[in-house]
Amino acid sequence: MGSALAIVVAGYALMALVGIGGDEVASFWTGLPRVFGAFYAGVGLYHAQSGFAPIRDARWRFLFWPLLGLSALLFYWPQGLSFWVGWSWSLIVSPLLVLSGAHVVLRGRVARASAVLGALSFPVYALHYPIFVWINAVYQAILGSGSFAVGTGLALPGVLIAGWLILRWWDEPVRRAMTTWLRTRAPQRVANGV
Q1: Burial letters for 150-159: b for 16+ Cβ neighbours within 10 Å, e otherwise?
Q2: For residue 137, how many other CB atoms are within 10 A of its CB?
Q3: What confidence tens digit (pLDDT) does each residue in 50-80 have?
C-alpha cells in the first residue's frame, strides 16, 4: 500500500510539472504520470478496503450518479478545460467514481451486460487508439481527407470485435493457464515453508 501511495503522489506531482499528455503521439511520454497516478490510486483503494472500514461503507454508492453526471459534463464541455480542472478530476473525481461504482449493485440483464463490458474494457482500452489511427489512415488514403466522426464510426465496431477476439483467444486462456500454474505451485511453496 505504501509503494502504491508513493507512485500516486509521484504521478500527480509529475502531472503538475509536465502537464496531462498521452492523448497524441507527441505527448505520449507526458501521459505516463497520469496513467501511473490514476492506476495506482485504484490499486491503493483496492488494498485500503481491507484495512480502512470507511472505504467499505455502502453509502459511497449514492455518489455514483452525481459523479458520473459531473464527468459527462466535463467530457462534453464545449470549450477546452483548464489543466487544473483535468488534474483535479483525475485526482479527486475519478477515484471517487471508481470507489462509488464498486458499491453499486446490479441485477439481471444489466449485471450480465456489465460483466461482458467489464471483460472487454481492458482489450478495448489497449486497442482503441491504434485501431482508430489505422482506420483513420486508410480512410484518409482512400478519400484524401479525414473526419473524426466517420473514423470513429468505422473504428468502433473494429475495436469491439478486436477486443472480443483478444479477450477470448489471448486474455482468458493466458489467465486460466497462469491460475492453473499458480495453484499447482502453491502446495509446493507451502510444503517448502515459503
Answers
A1: ebeebbeeeb
A2: 12
A3: 777 787 788 888 999 999 999 999 988 888 8
Torsion-angle region of residue 108: left (phi > 0), alpha (psi -120 to 50) or beta? left
For residues 70 and 66, what is the distance between their CA atoms, to the nearest angstrom?
6
Identify the helix (H) or strand (E) that includes residue 183.
helix 172-191
CA angle, corner 137, sides to 131 and 140, nearest 5?
140
Q: Which amino acid is at 171?
A: D
pTM: 0.65
Largest CA distance in the chain: 66
How many Å apart are CA 76 and CA 94, to the nearest integer?
Answer: 16
Quick: pLDDT tens for 106-126.
899 999 999 999 899 888 888
Distance of alpha carbon 115 from alpha carbon 113, whole angstroms: 5
Per DSSP, the three-state class of 76 is coil
For residue 187, count other CB atoms closer than 10 A to its CB.
Answer: 9
